[in-house]
Fold B box-type domain-containing protein.
Amino acid sequence: MGGVELEDGSKWPVWLRPLLHTSFFGQCKLHAAAHKSECNMFCLDCVNGPLCSLCLINLHKDHRSIQIRRSSYHDVIRVCEIQKYLDITGVQTYIINSAKIVFLNQRPQPRPGKGVTNTCRVCHRSLLDSFTFCSLGCKIVGTSQKFQMKKMGIEVGGSDSEESMNERTHKQVIRNKIIQSFTPSTPPQTSYRSAKRRKGVPHRAPTGGLIIEY
């Protein structure tokens, strides 16, 4: 398949991710005046964005190319074209205009219908029991090592390193010092005896006389 190993450990052709992120069906800037100037073609060798049929004839004649089609405002590709270059096992197929197709990217679905027993592993769209993913994009995500670890409950990129913990501890110490600097200190306690025996206030001696302190 001419695949390369990605950062997440999975292997896919170098052109697949750019294909899924390309916007098709715009007007070709080079052949805007032509009758067929809609950009619905993609060159797997050049990977340089959407192309019109005239671009393929003039600049990509001997290159591998595929045609993108539309179904309900979503990009699709015929199985007979894509399976030459990509393993689409597990991706749901549909019949549109007497041709078997697959969707390039997932389609939003609020919730599965009643009685649904099988859904896409990634976006949870309703599927037939014999399929695992609703689109090529979902298969890329669902077969990645990161996604598999997440499904097994293994934290990916979420655990705290010792350095980050030390940094947070240091920040907490500084925060506590700042709070203490703005907190008034506790005033010294005044003994009850000294408060009662103020200077110049007469009080009785044990013998019954008055004592005045100066």
Residues 77-151 form one domain.
